[in-house]
Design a protein that fits this description.
This protein is mostly helical. The chain has one domain. It has helices spanning about 5-10, 25-40, 45-70, 80-90, 100-115, 115-125, 130-160. It starts with 6 loop residues before the first helix and ends with a helix.
Length: about 160
């Protein structure tokens, strides 16, 4: 717990969420959704996107310091998952609902864990910036898929009720 007193551990573990004993990345992803719920839909983009950019820039040297202590991409570093979730839900076109929560977090974690294609290539590189980039790319892919899913659902509903 002494580690939590140091700012780099406080930020990179997202206030200790990274110390969750099982699946800390998934736990942090779930916790990251809580602030999303508190932001009005019309303000999500203007609050979450700048937060993702600013915290990403600030987190890179902090992650690098934690990596010096704990090794490359340690499991306690979960700020990347938090920023990924915030990036997904900064889109005002993704409604905040049970469906978007389950589908968004599930897709994001699948891309983050399985690391298909370019996500895996980025993850294979070492360095703090790559710890963030693979999750941010997983979030971008998730966002694109959620937009497609909601477009298709709206289209089906439109056809069904016309």
């Amino acid at each position: 717990m002494q580690e939590l007193r140091r700012i780099e551990y406080l930020v990179t573990t997202f206030f200790g969420a990274g110390y969750f004993p099982k699946a800390p990345g998934t736990f942090a992803s779930l916790v990251a959704f809580i602030p999303v719920l508190l932001i009005p839909n019309h303000l999500r983009l203007v609050i979450l996107l700048p937060a993702v950019v600013i915290i990403s820039i600030l987190a890179i040297p902090l992650i690098a310091r934690v990596e010096k202590d704990k090794g490359s991409d340690p499991s306690i570093v979960v700020i990347d998952e938090v920023l990924g979730v915030w990036l997904i839900y900064c889109s005002p076109y993704i409604p905040i609902s049970i469906l978007s929560f389950i589908s968004g977090i599930t897709l994001f974690r699948l891309f983050d864990i399985l690391k298909p294609s370019i996500i895996g290539k980025i993850n294979a590189k070492s360095g703090a910036i790559y710890v963030l980039l693979d999750d941010l790319l997983a979030a971008v892919v998730t966002t694109i898929l959620l937009h497609l899913l909601y477009f298709i659902l709206k289209f089906i509903i439109l056809i069904a009720f016309s």
